């Protein structure tokens, strides 16, 4: 057994929402990898996070997991695709989590959360906008907030120097630039080789 698979299997816990996870796999809905998900949930627990902001709801899979990570957690999650948002709300209601998750239908590039103050930010939307989302939503965070960005490896694209497709090359360069900017910033950062890559920013 290769080492990466060994560690991935150790980091993957029993699925709490199997029907939603199965739907995502069968319909190619992009959701966080299981090993990375459990690492994020542990960070939520270690941080003692209570007010989580998620950029990119999809069908509500990660929001449900985050809300279940510890008692007293509330998740606010933003999704611009109406069909995904509606399915997420159905999933949240069916799981009995409507009082723990607020799902917002909007373009995260344009949302004004007014007085929202969050101690945990999870960015998992269009990868080329990581920098924009970071810059916009850090203003809504507490001073000791934790930020995690998913898919910083872009399914292997990040290290591919021979990308012929112009759009993919542009995406790769944007994510590369963001990763480097965070490394060079004043913030404490960790780049984790779990799932499709997690960036943890404090």
TrEMBL record:
It comes from the Bacteria. Keywords: Methyltransferase, S-adenosyl-L-methionine, Transferase. Gene3D superfamilies: Vaccinia Virus protein VP39 (3.40.50.150). PROSITE patterns: SAM_OMT_I. Transmembrane segments: none annotated. Pfam families: Methyltransf_3. PANTHER family: CAFFEOYL-COA O-METHYLTRANSFERASE 3-RELATED, O-METHYLTRANSFERASE-RELATED. This is O-methyltransferase YrrM.
């Amino acid at each position: 057994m290769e080492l990466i698979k060994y560690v991935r299997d150790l980091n993957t816990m029993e699925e709490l929402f199997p029907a939603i996870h199965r739907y995502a796999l069968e319909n190619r809905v992009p959701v966080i990898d299981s090993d990375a998900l459990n690492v994020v949930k542990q960070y939520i627990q270690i941080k003692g996070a209570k007010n989580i902001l998620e950029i990119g709801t999809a069908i509500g899979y990660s929001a449900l997991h985050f809300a279940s990570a510890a008692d007293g957690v509330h998740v606010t999650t933003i999704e611009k695709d109406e069909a995904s948002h509606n399915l997420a709300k159905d999933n949240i209601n069916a799981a009995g989590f409507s009082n723990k998750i607020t799902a917002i239908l909007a373009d995260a590039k344009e949302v004004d959360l007014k007085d929202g103050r969050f101690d945990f930010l999870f960015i998992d939307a269009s990868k080329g906008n990581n920098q924009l989302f970071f810059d916009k939503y850090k203003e809504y965070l507490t001073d000791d907030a934790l930020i995690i960005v998913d898919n910083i490896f872009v399914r292997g694209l990040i290290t591919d120097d021979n990308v012929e497709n112009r759009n993919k090359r542009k995406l790769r360069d944007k994510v590369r630039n963001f990763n480097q900017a965070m490394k060079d910033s004043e913030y404490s950062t960790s780049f984790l080789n779990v799932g499709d890559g997690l960036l943890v920013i404090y």
